[in-house]
Design a protein that fits this description.
- With 491 residues, the chain is α+β, with helices and mostly antiparallel strands.
- It has three domains: 94 residues, Nucleic acid-binding proteins (OB fold (Dihydrolipoamide Acetyltransferase, E2P)), CATH 2.40.50.140; 242 residues, Rossmann fold, CATH 3.40.50.1820; 92 residues, Sandwich (Immunoglobulin-like).
- A hairpin with a 2-residue loop joins β6 and β7.
- α3 packs parallel to α8 and α8 packs antiparallel against α9.
- It is elongated, with a radius of gyration of 27 Å.
């Protein structure tokens, strides 16, 4: 008798595990539609818990149709009536009825606050099992009701970019454009599907459904730079622009005009080593540009003098470049809550072009795209005149002038208020007898000296990224730029 009870209990346990019998009385669940990644099985996320869904044999055919929509990307909020059980070996619901519902019972996660920002940490299970889970951090400014876009900063191999929003050049980008920040850790494979899964789940947790539609401004160092190009290749319609730092533009698979029309800038160090090679990344970048630039690619690159594979203030070009791209490409009337943002195309002829062969022979040569006379295969396309002037100052090797204050790296902890003042101090010891010094904010001249102390004071700063450089003229009429510095001004 006891043995018969044991066999019966075991039989029922197996039968329930197959999801074929009712494990409990029907219940009502309220949650958000989702899908189970690769296999796209329909899910309902209730207070952060995932339930796999299966239509009951007695359910109306409309239930199966609705579940198919879940698998196709529906992220709406629903009330589900059904029996809890096991589906595909996971916690599940055998669905009898399903109806749209208001999002009042959407997933909730404690929201820590820090300096006016809401911070959400979220993990996505790694595959294969045993690898460290992918860790993401989403940072949303407190006063932001709609996330217009995402500043994505990929981590280098073994690195952690989750706290990079604390650096002022990244943080103020969010306030300038109504964006959120996305950083990551243990994201070694840089799989876009993993990032999309994270964003879909974060959209539910944060109650910002527009996250799944938000376009990306992307950058990263080393492997993070590699992810920048991979993200552009995977979803060019969503990438506003990208800046690859300390990596290449090696792209596997077909490159189409959709990819070529995404503005990209690559920044390497002069002493940076290619894989298994001596200093210099030209062997890896020049062939890509030689093929793609004559075909209209809105791409460019430069090498920073004296720098290897390291962080060295590359944000001085990165952030103005991304800032300009958002202003050019994000439609003023776009509503990210209604669907993906149709990014505006940038005309090839509207940009400026730099001659890459002139970095080391005086000042880098730049010109409006329609008037450029050099070899396109050895050129860099730049978004506008301001970015071109900044690029010239940064890429030129012969720079006898040096801006010493503000410190080129001071933006990590310093931000100026709009309307305030800043003093630009210049070391002119290597340009004795200069006849003129001109201070530029991008391409705009904002100060000039013909004698005296090499120092400028700028008042009534305007919000945004102020990228300053100095043009010096010597007694022979030669003109050389200084290094550029980035001054971040709070909106």
């Amino acid at each position: 008798m006891e043995r018969s009870k044991f066999v019966l209990a075991a039989f029922l346990t197996v039968f329930v595990a197959l999801g074929s019998v009712r494990a409990a009385d029907p219940e009502t669940f309220a949650g958000t539609a989702s899908a189970s990644g690769t296999h796209k099985r329909p899910l309902l996320i209730v207070d952060g818990k995932r339930y796999e869904l299966k239509a009951s044999d007695k359910a109306d055919p409309a239930v199966a149709k609705t579940l198919t929509k879940f698998s196709q990307g529906d992220t709406g909020t629903y009330t589900v009536r059904g029996t809890p059980g096991t589906v595909q070996g996971n916690d599940g619901i055998i669905v009898e009825r399903i109806d749209p519902a208001p999002p009042a019972n959407a997933a909730k996660t404690p929201v820590p606050k820090k300096a006016g920002y809401r911070i959400y940490d979220h993990a996505v299970k790694a595959a294969p099992p045993g690898d460290a889970d992918h860790q993401f951090r989403l940072v949303i400014p407190d006063n932001l009701t709609t996330v217009r876009g995402l500043l994505v900063v990929g981590p280098y191999s073994g690195g952690d970019s989750r706290d990079y929003h604390g650096q002022v050049w990244y943080r103020e980008f969010l306030n300038l454009h109504g964006f959120a920040f996305l950083g990551a850790k243990n994201y070694y494979l840089h799989d876009y599907a993993v990032m999309r899964t994270a964003l879909k789940q974060l959209a539910e947790i944060t109650r910002h459904p527009e996250l799944v539609n938000a376009p990306y401004a992307v950058t990263g160092f080393s492997a993070g730079g590699g992810y920048t190009r991979k993200l552009m290749h995977a979803d060019p319609a969503k990438v506003i622009a990208g800046v690859v730092v300390g990596s290449t533009m090696k792209l596997r698979g077909e490159i189409t005009n959709d990819h070529r029309r995404v503005p990209m800038c690559i920044i390497n160090g002069e002493l940076e080593r290619g894989p298994g090679e001596g200093p210099g990344m030209a062997k890896h970048l020049e062939p890509v540009l030689a093929e793609q630039r004559p075909n209209g690619a809105l791409w460019g690159w430069m090498a920073v003098q004296g720098v290897g594979h390291e962080f060295a203030g590359q944000e001085v070009l990165t952030m103005p470049f991304l800032d300009a791209a958002v202003r050019l490409r994000y439609p003023a009337d776009a509503d990210v809550r209604q669907g993906p943002v149709p990014l505006k195309p940038v005309a090839l002829e509207s940009g400026w072009i730099a001659d890459n062969s002139t970095w080391t022979s005086g000042a880098t040569a730049i010109a409006p795209a329609p008037t450029f006379k050099g070899d396109l295969a050895k050129s860099s396309w730049l978004l506008n005149e301001d970015i071109a002037f900044l690029y010239r100052a940064y890429s030129t090797f012969d720079r006898p002038l040096k801006i010493t204050s503000p410190d080129p790296m001071s933006a990590q902890g310093e931000v100026f208020d709009a309307g305030s003042a800043v003093t630009i101090r210049v070391d002119d010891s290597k340009l004795p007898g200069w006849t003129k010094l001109e201070l530029l904010d991008g391409a705009t001249k904002v100060g000039e000296l013909s004698k005296g102390k090499a120092e400028f004071k700028i008042t009534k700063l305007k919000a945004g990224y102020r990228a300053y450089s100095v043009l010096g003229t010597d007694a022979k009429g030669n003109v050389r730029p200084s290094n550029p510095v980035l001054v971040v001004v709070r909106k």
